[in-house]
Write a structure and sequence with these properties.
This protein is an alpha+beta fold. It has one domain: 3-Layer(aba) Sandwich (Aminopeptidase), CATH 3.40.630.30. 28% of the residues lie in helices and 35% in strands. The protein has five helices and eight strands. The protein is globular.
Length: 181
């Protein structure tokens, strides 16, 4: 499975994240309100985001999200933890968008593109979300994510431990869900 494809929709282009995307992506990420409800709510700080960015490049699977109308990078997402066993699974996450793209169709289009690609190769896509990140949990429900009883683990952050929950979208639920069109 190619975890860093180039995907194109009506308004978005998703392409592999590159080192030279640093300035454009940090311009989006440097807004403290982007991270306000996120467990890593200090990620807007340059040294913290620099570590996040370096990890994204090192792990592979990171995508730059580009607004086709403006040509501007507006966020990022990743496909990680690919597991080919038992029908296969991959995790989509580490997603953030600039506030000027919240509440509209951007997250929906981005996730539809990523899910349509991933579900060609795996039976299930997982999403680990901070238990208290109500914005991301609401977004998961809007795109048809089902909360599972699997433990998403606890991640240490600058503000302390953050428990995560796991949502999933299967090939079957995607076909019947709100992103199928």
């Amino acid at each position: 499975m190619n975890r860093q494809p180039t995907l194109e929709g009506p308004t978005l282009l998703l392409r592999p994240l590159r080192e030279d995307d640093w300035d454009a992506l940090y311009a989006v990420a440097s807004d403290p309100l982007v991270w306000e409800l996120h467990p890593a709510n200090d990620r807007w700080q340059e040294p913290v985001f620099r570590a996040y960015f370096a990890d994204a490049l090192a792990q592979g699977g990171a995508l730059a999200v580009i607004d086709k109308q403006t040509g501007r990078i507006i966020g990022s997402s990743r496909m990680q933890a690919y597991d080919p066993s038992d029908g296969g699974s991959v995790e989509i996450g580490w997603t953030f968008l600039g506030r000027d793209h919240w509440g509209g169709a951007t997250n929906r289009e981005m996730k539809r593109l990523m899910l349509a690609h991933a579900l060609q190769f795996v039976e299930r896509v997982d999403f680990r979300v901070g238990e208290t990140n109500l914005r991301s949990r609401g977004a998961m429900e809007k795109i048809g994510g089902r909360l599972t009883d699997r433990d998403g683990g606890v991640i240490e952050t600058a503000s302390g431990p953050a428990r995560h929950v796991v949502y999933e979208i299967t090939r079957e639920s995607f076909t019947a869900g709100p992103l199928s069109a």
